[in-house]
Amino acid sequence: MSLLIVKDLSIAFRQAGQDRQVVDNLSFTVEAGETRALVGESGSGKSVTALSLMRLLPTPPVIYPQGEILFSGQDVLKADERLLRSLRGNRMAMIFQEPMVSLNPLHTIEKQLYEVLSLHRGMRKEAARAEMLTCLDRVGIREATRRLNDFPHQLSGGERQRVMIAMALLTQPELLIADEPTTALDVTVQAQILSLLKELKQEMNMGLLFITHNLNIVSRLADNVTVMCNGQGVESNSTRELFSRPQHPYTQKLLDAEPDGRPDPIDDEVQPLLNVEKLQVAFPIKRGLLRRVTGYHHALRSLSFQLRPGESLGLVGESGSGKSTTGLALLRLIASGGEIWFDGQPLHQWDRRQMLPVRRQIQVVFQDPNSALNPRLTIQQIIEEGLQVHHPDLNAMQRETRVIAAMEEVGLDAATRHRYPAEFSGGQRQRIAIARALILQPRLIILDEPTSSLDRSVQKQILALLKKLQQQHRLAYIFISHDLQVVRSLCHQVVVLRRGEVVEQGECEAVFAAPEQAYTRQLLSLA
User: Fold this and answer.
1) Which of 126, 259, 264, 362 is least surrounded by Cβ atoms within 10 Å, i.e. has the fewest?
2) For the purposes of burial, counting CB atoms within 10 Å of the CB of 293, is it exposed (0-12), middle (13-18) or buried (19 or more)?
3) Per-residue CA distances from 199 to 89, 179, 206, 525 (Å)
4) Is the preceding omega at residue 259 within 30 degrees of 0, hence cis?
5) DSSP 8-state code for residue 88
6) Which helix (H) or strand (E) holds 107?
7) 240-244 own/partner pairs: CB under 8 Å, 24+ apart
8) How far is the CA of 421 from the CAs of 16, 102, 375, 416, 433, in angstroms?
9) Which of 163, 221, 162 is nearest to 194 (CA)?
10) Parallel/antiparallel/unpaired status of strands 62-71 and 74-75
11) Among 514, 450, 513, which Cα is nearest to 482's?
């Protein structure tokens, strides 16, 4: 018998006496030792299906009009709470997509990992600590002993995701459900995690249900694939067959949605907008009762580059390499050494008050639009917030006119401006974040992993939008990413960082065509 059988499953949300169906007549199986990928765009029903397998959705409003979920012969949909508690964590585990939401910000990593081992495996603290360190080391956390005392906010996005993976693997489950577990990871760590999951699957004869929009991962990891579109399973086949001979038009569309093209050429005679000389960032290490500074952690060492209007610079490297730190230093949100010249002005010499007029010209788009947009404000209020700060002379009608223009420019329906962020898809929320940056008419935008959490088809739309906006407004971009295909399609220059050091730097095409350093070659081969 199969480890997991999903048969004719339908899922609906009951609201105000009406049922809205989100999954329709879905069927697939997962065998022990098999990896099945569940693939589709945002809103296709992948995550709702995954959460339903462990009955993690509240009923009501969630209802199951028809179908079965059989785990080792037991019908999960008919199970009582006692049986569900014995399955969750012990025999079925889940890696969630957003680690910052899933990890408790008030507890250390050690406390959260120990809770898993204590509850599910009855381990005492000393034995549990050794198990935790082994697992953290296997998922690629450097200096695991020291990091156990860290809180989630002290880890990078990739490190938090690795902790979530370690937490799920500690219980040694029969079935592991992984909901976009590598979205925030760079290609080197991604390769480590995929290799680890393969290894553990073989060791434990574990079934793996892998939910993702990254088809490169699917081709390397999955044995079989089920493609979902609008809640339906439109195609199901072995990985080799599906990639070589896709049958459904939607599957063909997904396979054709890889980033392509190259950045538009720029005028070499134009004077640089941004000139950075020997930028460096060091954080003090404080120890002892009096918290005295005993040393410094160098997050970034001696980065120099020039950026012209209409030009894009890609910052590439694994988690903890200093990419986001560079962005924060350029925004003057953290202390740094070296020189930052913007339009001939010495930002490195300026204090907070002097920086205020320049803030309008340098904007940022963050990685996760869920965290970056205030859920209590409407889209109108979110986008116009910068205008209220930097253009207090504008009245409400003038601000609304500009909001409408900004929304239309990024491909959003202006009639939706009175809705809240939760009412939009991931791709739409990222467009809202771009509109918020654009409304102030900046000259430089720092894009911190703006497409990493998006489906390939949506990602392609956002990249096309960024290129169009750059051409229209001669915007300069600093593009922080671990996706080398995206960097190649958008950026003129590239800087490869590793542990705060510049490994390689130059024209994007030259670096991609003939990388000089072994680390760069490794990144390209993994991509």
Assistant:
1) 126
2) exposed
3) 20, 19, 10, 21
4) no
5) B
6) none
7) 243/215, 243/219
8) 22, 20, 6, 10, 10
9) 221
10) antiparallel
11) 450
Give CA–CA dist 190/452, Å, rounded: 13
* Burial class, 323, CB count within 10 angstroms (exposed 0-12 / middle 13-18 / buried 19+): buried
Reading the chain (527 residues) residue by residue, the pLDDT tens digits are 689 999 999 999 887 778 888 899 999 999 999 999 999 887 788 888 999 999 988 888 889 999 999 998 889 998 888 888 888 888 898 888 766 677 888 999 999 999 888 888 888 888 888 889 988 888 878 888 888 989 988 887 678 878 888 888 888 889 999 888 776 667 777 777 788 788 878 888 899 999 987 788 898 889 999 999 989 999 999 999 999 999 999 988 888 877 667 888 887 778 999 999 999 999 888 887 778 888 888 889 999 999 999 999 999 987 778 888 999 999 999 999 999 999 999 999 998 889 988 999 999 998 777 778 999 999 999 999 999 999 999 999 999 999 999 999 888 889 999 989 888 877 788 889 999 999 999 999 999 888 776 777 777 888 888 898 899 999 999 999 877 888 888 999 999 998 889 999 999 999 988 888 888 888 887 76
Residue the block writes with tokens 């990493």: 452
Let me know how long the chain is: 527
Where are the alpha helices (H) located in 205-341, listed in sequence order? 215-221, 239-244, 249-255, 323-330
R_g over Cα of the chain:
24
Token reading at 504 = 């390689």
Residue 362 β-bridge partners: 444
Structural tokens at position 422? 């939760």
Q: What is the pTM of this model?
A: 0.75
Integer CA distances (angstroms), 493 to 108, 214, 280, in order: 39, 25, 20
Q: Is residue 150 within 8 Å of residue 297, measured between CB atoms?
A: no
- Which stretches of 157-266 are assigned E, i.e. beta strand? 175-179, 207-212, 224-229, 232-238
- Residues 6+ positions from 314 with CB-CB distance below 8 Å: 479, 480, 481, 487, 490, 491, 493, 494, 495, 508
Residue 51 CB burial class (10 angstroms; 0-12, 13-18, ≥19) = middle
The pair of three-digit structure tokens given for residue 237, joined into one six-digit string: 């086949």
